[in-house]
Amino acid sequence: MKKKMTSILDQHIGKAEDAKNMRGYRSRNQDGKLRGTRNDKRVDTIEKQYGRNFGVRGDMHLGTLLQKLGFESVHALIESDVGK
User: Fold this and answer.
1) Residues with Cβ < 8 Å from 72, sequence gap 6 or more?
2) Beta-carbon neighbour count of residue 62 at 10 Å?
3) Are 65 and 54 within 8 A, CB to CB?
4) 7 vs 53: CA distance, rounded Å
5) Helix (H) or strand (E) segment spanning residue 17
6) pTM of the predicted protein model
7) pLDDT in tens, 2-58
8) So what's the pLDDT on residue 3?
9) Which candidate among 25, 26, 29, 40 keeps its CA 20 to 30 Å from the CA of 19?
10) 51 contacts: CB under 8 Å, gap ≥ 6
11) Separation between Cα atoms, residue 31 and residue 23, nearest integer Å
């Protein structure tokens, strides 16, 4: 029987392997929930990631955009038609 080795790096940065149907490793909070997107992430990064154009400067922070447009989360923003 093969035993999967966990690297020391994975142990120290709080990443754990997810369920079989999920790809890769994802960061988690102390309580085990998946970490949310930081509010200081740049909007141009989100635009590239999801193929959107929100019509604002790329160096705007995500938190500012969400507040300006009235969304609670990145998920809600992406599920909407804004920037398509």
Assistant:
1) 66
2) 20
3) yes
4) 39
5) strand 15-17
6) 0.62
7) 555 555 445 545 555 566 666 556 677 777 777 777 888 899 999 999 999 999 999
8) 52
9) 40
10) none
11) 21
